[in-house]
Amino acid sequence: MRDFPGFVYLNIENPMVAWNTVKGWVASTGIVAGDERDAFISFNMAGLLSASGFGRLVTEIEIERVRRQYYPHQVSRLTGLFVFDDVDSVAQTWSEQSWGGHFDTKYLTDVGVAANRYSRVDANWITRMMDQDANLVEGTLEMIHSYWGGVAAPYVEPVWECIVEGWVTVWGRQIKLGALAEIQKYWPSSVKLLEYAGNAAALRSLDGAIYPHAKLVNKELSVEYYIRRVDAKRPEFSEQLGTFMRARDGRQCFFTSETDLVTPDFQMYNISRHLSDSDKALLFSI
User: Fold this and answer.
1) Is 51 helix (H, G, I), strand (E, B) or coil?
2) Number of structural domains, the chain?
3) Is 35 exposed, middle or buried (0-12, 13-18, 19+ CB in 10 A)?
């Protein structure tokens, strides 16, 4: 276990990301309980599965294949949380257009990391090994080995990213307030449940966190979003939460006077798609 400060980009215009930002404490899918670990996938993986084409997924699977075969001690990009651990690496993302629109300073916040394991790798290799359509370029295998080996890419300043198996606590107050405003706009009737999520986080509970879930039946793939509510079923947790709320010592979340815990409507964000034989074979190769 190692604790360290870091920085992440949180696109709070995505309401699921905004929700988890307000909760303020999330965990990678690799460390949740066994049954849940089998059900949940990372937001990164959900994005890959929800994309119109599987080009980027093919690339990520090849990177994962090399990791599993040669670097099993490294944390998977498909399950870990991505964190920058130094300001210089964050600054490199500001000048590079290839990083994408969500790498914007308005989404940047400082965080605290509690890592069971983490891998520190130079993200420059990822942009080098793909063309503009996310297809692998010539010489990719060597670059993947350099990436997982922790080697800095030549001729450029390194962009060190940490892939974390563990927990991340959002420290930035302004991004939390911005995220809360987004939830009040998208899901106003669910703010009481978000309040519960924030208070559960203070007790180191993952209850109230949003996780994607993938299911494949025959050739039908679905990606749906769920809110974890496991600890709420345990009487001892309910008692602990009640004691915490009555303390009113400044650590509690109070967002609304409403009392109903209303689950957000994820319908417009869930996806379902029919897979070809080759697409199905691709997913089973992970």
Assistant:
1) coil
2) 1
3) exposed
